[in-house]
Design goal:
This protein is of the alpha+beta class. Helices cover 20% and strands 43% of the residues. The strands form three sheets. The protein has a six-stranded mixed beta sheet with strand order 4-3-8-7-6-5. A six-stranded mixed beta sheet has the order 10-9-14-13-12-11, covered by helices on one side. Strands 1-2 form a two-stranded antiparallel sheet. The protein starts with a strand and ends in a 7-residue tail after the last strand.
Length: 300
């Protein structure tokens, strides 16, 4: 048979190397492959292992110092944001209900920081907390000039576990955010997946809805349209509203949205959806999408 193939090449030194490879674009049953590390870098596993050990040992300050002050932490309930500067306080409060954290990195995708090769780097990480079997996401970043050490700019705990918690009257975010969600509803519900994929940054990553301890992987930007096309078969419609929003800086917003709908079998579903928005070429684009937070039990 014949299928379309997407390849993203990067010039590394004097050699061209494959950065992203997607097979089966536009084909029924097409399969997406990506540059997700099958063996996570040792440095990432060491950092995340230290984070878990610091928490378990009650050294919340050590774990808290690994966060950027302007970054965010999303609790297991997925109902609010905790500023990075308050991470130590949150971890101390969490310790009473969850005394242990044993983090194991499962998948890593690395990107240039803000699209500038050489200025710095970002590492998206998925892993498993063996203390309770839940999945976590961490976004590590560093800048070679003013922040040479790797720091956590975003972390989501407990994906694939816990009950849905309604965010209620949390801040609704700027007006453009609501308009972008309305645009997503229109495109997704009408099966316009290629148009929907254009709302994603070229460096974007998506954590699949079906993420689990045994299935920790990323979908990268070239595979977004194909992925949502598959999701549409079981979740044919969605309604979205902003549940909480956090401005990191002029060009970065974090959003928690409430996503709800009816599945292909007629059963209602509801979950929180995390999105990191970045302002690129005059528009707000999706840089990171994690529709795996706070699932209702019927989905698993």
């Amino acid at each position: 048979g014949v299928v379309r193939c997407y390849v993203r090449w990067l010039l590394e030194g004097s050699e061209w190397a494959i950065d992203t490879h997607v097979l089966g674009i536009g084909a029924q049953g097409g399969q997406v492959t990506s540059a997700t590390s099958q063996t996570p870098p040792h440095a990432v596993t060491e950092r995340e292992g230290f984070y878990g050990r610091s928490f378990t040992g009650g050294d919340y300050g050590a774990a808290g110092k690994m966060h950027t002050a302007a970054g965010v932490l999303v609790p297991r309930e997925g109902d609010r944001f905790v500023a990075g500067r308050d991470a130590a306080k949150y971890l101390e409060a969490l310790h009473g209900a969850k005394p242990q954290m044993a983090l194991e990195t499962r998948a890593v995708v690395e990107r240039p920081l803000h699209g500038m090769i050489g200025a710095g780097a970002v590492q998206h990480s998925l892993g498993v907390d063996h203390a309770d079997g839940s999945v976590y996401y961490m976004r590590w970043a560093r800048h070679h000039d003013y922040a040479p050490d790797w720091r956590v700019s975003t972390v989501l705990f407990g994906m694939g576990g816990g009950a849905f918690v309604d965010a209620g009257t949390s801040p609704s975010g700027p007006r453009w955010m609501t308009r972008r969600l309305q645009q997503i509803e229109l495109l997704y519900n009408n099966s316009r997946f290629a148009d929907y994929a254009r709302m994603y940054s070229p460096e974007a990553v998506v954590v699949p809805i079906e993420v689990s301890a045994s299935n920790a992987q990323f979908i990268e930007a070239p595979g977004v349209a194909a992925y949502w096309r598959v999701c549409h078969e079981t979740l044919p419609n969605v309604a979205l509203r902003v549940a909480a929003a956090f401005e990191e800086n002029d060009g970065v917003w974090h959003m928690l949205a409430e996503a709800a709908g009816v599945d292909a079998g007629g059963a209602p579903w509801k979950r929180h959806w995390y999105v990191r928005w970045v302002h690129e070429v005059g528009a707000w684009m999706i840089d990171t999408a994690i529709p795996a937070g706070g699932p209702t039990p019927s989905l698993y």
